[in-house]
Amino acid sequence: MFKNLTINEIPMVRKFAAKGLGNFLRVLPLSLEKEILDMVNNVIKDDQDLVRVYMVDALLPLAGLIPQQKHQQIIIPMFNTLADDQSWRIKYSICEKSQEVKKKRYLFGCYNLGFYSNERLEKHSRKSL
Q: By three-state DSSP, how is residue 119 classified?
């Protein structure tokens, strides 16, 4: 049912579904991984930036849910997609959350990611201004 909210035709419904997605992910079992990833991908690919902006907050709980072996394949491309988003809101949110993401980088099992480079964050910050 929650998945239906992420693909609803009304943008405000999708926005509030995306806003609650991070909390929702904290209580879902890993056995629903395929359904979870479908929901997350629906939100990341949404045409409204006011919906996509909430994925920055939701990806941290998702990283805690997905096994570390799959972070390179699943989580990192999602972060990179958001970091490369055309919307200034998304870029601003990524930059705002960068310290929290850096503190939790142990979740990703590696430290040398393009997403964490200060140059990339600065580049996105300059583009958003």
A: helix
